[in-house]
Amino acid sequence: MSELTYAPVGATRTGTLPPGFRHLFYRAPLGSGADLYERAGDAVLGFRMHRATGARVVAASSAVPGLPLTLGFGPLRVPCEVIWTEKSGKRTGFAYGTLPGHQASGEEAFIVEHDDRDRVWFTVVAYSRPARTLMRLGGPFAVAFQHTYARLCGRALKRLCTVNG
Question: Can you give the pTM of this predicted structure?
Answer without folding.
Answer: 0.92
